[in-house]
Sequence to fold (252 residues):
Amino acid sequence: MELVILGSGTCSPNPARMAPGYFLTIGSTRLLIDPGPGAVGRAVAMGLDPYEADAVALTHNHLDHSADMLPFLFSRKNCRRSSAVEDIRIFAPRGFTADFAKLMEVYGRLIVSDNYRIVIEEMGANEWEEPSFSIRSAPVLHSGSAVGYRFSKAGGPSLAYSGDTGYCEEIVELARGADILLIECSYPDGTMTDGHMTPSEVAVVAKESGAGSVVITHLQPEMDVGEAVRIIRSSGYRGEVTAAEDGMRIRI
Ligand SMILES: [Zn+2]
Ligand SMILES: [Zn+2]
Fold:
């Protein structure tokens, strides 16, 4: 598996850390995860072909995590020449099918194509399996029906991803024993964090879950990233702790 960080920031404009976006390769499958604004263009800038994505995985409908979904489909319809008909699977929280139907009323003609079928998989507390990999989801402590995911290669490694969340048991369970926990760490300790995490809370999840290593992401501009990493490392957590950077590639 390989994870490429397209954006390690938030909705706060920050040229050093763009809005969320992740490109995950699991064997021959490629997933565009939480494509925030500009994520598709950044994938190209990082040497990836976004049209190779077989699926999009959304954790919730906040625009910093989902704004590039429609441009991705529009671009794929108009800019990729292919005679094969492919499925584009969209993994998304409960209620997405109804939300997507409303988007189709406005944009349907622009994103429906003879070259692909859009297949929606609503995810809550469940698991979706293929022979080569699986995706487990769980509701997390954020807006609406937000979920976190765990992506696992069959017989191989796994990546847990929090999306946006405050501390909750569900993210601990998703991350339990995962090789890598990619986890939001939006705000410094001592600040208001409703539905988000601080370094000390990330440290608790890291220790309770026993994840092999931790990568913090969704970092607000005011976050002292070095201090955040230091807090988690000094908490007693034994795994490796790193901060995501835009363009970072992580072998799993
Ligand atoms: Zn966010
Ligand atoms: Zn959010």
